[in-house]
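Supplementary Text 2. Reproducibility record for the structural model of the 192-residue chain.

All settings were left at their defaults, and a single model was retained for analysis rather than an ensemble. We include the record here because the model underlies the residue-level annotations in Supplementary Table 4.
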Amino acid sequence: MGLLFQTPVEINELDDRVNVSSDGTLRIRTYGLPMIFWGYLLAILAVIFFMILAIKDPLLKVLNGEDQLNVAIGIAVLIILIGAPLALLCLYFYEKEILKKGDQISVIHKVFFLPLWRKSFTLKEGEVTLELEHFLDSPNVAAQTKKTGMAGFENRGYFKLVITRTGAKAYLVDRNSRRGEMRKLKELLEQY
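Retained model, structure tokens:
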């Protein structure tokens, strides 16, 4: 989600997304989506609303019918018409929070400001560390051919800040298409 929900990488007194509490706990929260996305959400919800208005009577007739297959299809349509706006709202109210105090680091995923999932680690030198990795899953054809005017089409991949543990799978803290942003976030987390 780091490519869509941006994480701040430095302390700014005008921004409440990076805080250091009196006990030395660093709290970093992702930014919300830009206002243009809320316009997209409004347009999507308007389309769904007009779809509901258009199919309300036939849907009620199908739900009250005697054919079990048609009733099941009607229930599936009703679940989609209710679930799609709810899923979109959950996506728009998603927030990731990174807490760091001493050697303890926690990544908390929230929806509607309620913590849904939390993963905590104790950083130990040599066993559990923060690392910056580059990820590029497809061949960079534009960079290989070096044609004029193709530089903008080069696939540069993205950079991941991960917690690596010996003998276990790495855990993704955040990712970004810019290496400098991930390097600053790593340095910020290592300061506290």
